[in-house]
Amino acid sequence: MTSEAPKVLLKVEGLTKHFPITKGVFRRQVGAVKAVDGISFEILQGETLGLVGESGCGKSTTGRVILQLYPATAGKVTFKGRDLMSLSKEELRKQRPQMQMIFQDPQDSLNPRMTVGSIISEPLVEHGEFKGKARRDRVEQLLESVGMNREYTNRYPHEFSGGQRQRIGIARALALSPEFIICDEPIAALDVSIQAQVVNLLEELQEELGLTYLFISHDLSMIRHIADRVAVMYLGRIVELASSESLYSTPLHPYTQALLSAVPIHDPKLEKKRKRVILTGDVPSPANPPSGCHFSIRCPRAEQRCFKDSPEWREITPGHQVACHLV
């Protein structure tokens, strides 16, 4: 018997998030920051989709709009067949336990006035899960599952290192047994020596609990290690989406090629021969992106049509999609 193909857990269609720019006493809108500009992708059950790009390209905003922490300007987000944008506040609240987020900076995302036990049990209290001793046992079990001592429940966040605080954040995200977790640069604020430990923990938890991840990062080496498929984002748009193996071996979009050329290779001989792609100019403002292809004014291969026409999203080889006139 052949195994069933994995189901689509999350589907994003034409997702757009514009933040208004206002001016004057009456806060009249004079423009908009196009943080997310009409992106579409799917995440399969049990997989890790990596979302990469430079700072300010809209990665974190994408994660927050998917979870409805920010209302979308346009588009559709479907989770397990349900359109999240059509749900009432109460229906969305009931859906929340299945979708959680691990934030970038554990220093900022944990309340310094609350004990570790209170932080981890907060989602359980909010959703009425477990009572009394059962709740305390659940908190201790969660601490143990992220490699921490059960006795830490009465301590405060400032008593822990950055890596330990992130483990507490992961335990909180797991409290309601979610199926889908958005990891918003969960290792960016940590020491390099600790980063691998946290990523390995996330991989172990995924295997053990059958989790699905959207892993947001600007660290291409780490994404290569953890992601099954990778989406490359530039100025609010996804420019390339492929399996990790395909994207790293044959990047098609000039922006992806430039990003990968900046990742060091451990072989000094290969590193010496390798051709670097140096991008000129600064990233344009998302409040006033270029017409046509957003990457056109920095692209070393741009043609006349790149400045006028927006490139079509096409599948070049099975599973490898790109938005570029030149491919």
Give an account of the 3D structure.
The protein is α/β, with parallel strands linked by helices and 327 residues long. It is built from 11 helices and 12 strands. It has helices spanning 59-66, 89-95, 106-109, 116-126, 132-145, 162-174, 192-209, 220-226, 244-249, 254-261, 268-273, and strands spanning 8-23, 28-44, 48-52, 74-79, 82-83, 99-102, 180-184, 212-217, 229-234, 237-243, 313-317, 320-323. Helix 4 packs parallel to helix 6 (162-174) and helix 6 packs parallel to helix 7. The longest helix is centred in the middle third of the chain and has 18 residues, at 192-209. It is globular and about 70 Å long. The two termini are 39 Å apart. The mean pLDDT is 91.
From the alpha-carbon coordinates, what is the Rg to the nearest angstrom? Answer: 21 Å
Number of helices: 11
The amount of beta strand, in percent, is 25-35%
Sketch the major β-sheet.
8 strands, mixed
What strand order characterises the main sheet?
A: 6-7-8-3-9-10-12-11
Number of strands: 12
Described by the principal axes of the CA atoms, the overall outline is globular
Uncertain segments: none
What is the arithmetic mean of pLDDT?
91
- By secondary-structure content and strand pairing, the structural class works out as alpha/beta
End-to-end distance, in Å?
39 Å
Helix content: 25-40%
H/E element sequence: EEEHEEHEHHHHEHEHEEHHHEE
Would you spell out the secondary-structure blueprint of this structure?
Blueprint: E1 8-23, E2 28-44, E3 48-52, H1 59-66, E4 74-79, E5 82-83, H2 89-95, E6 99-102, H3 106-109, H4 116-126, H5 132-145, H6 162-174, E7 180-184, H7 192-209, E8 212-217, H8 220-226, E9 229-234, E10 237-243, H9 244-249, H10 254-261, H11 268-273, E11 313-317, E12 320-323
Parallel strand pairs: 3-8, 3-9, 6-7, 7-8
Antiparallel strand pairs: 1-2, 1-4, 4-5, 9-10, 10-12, 11-12
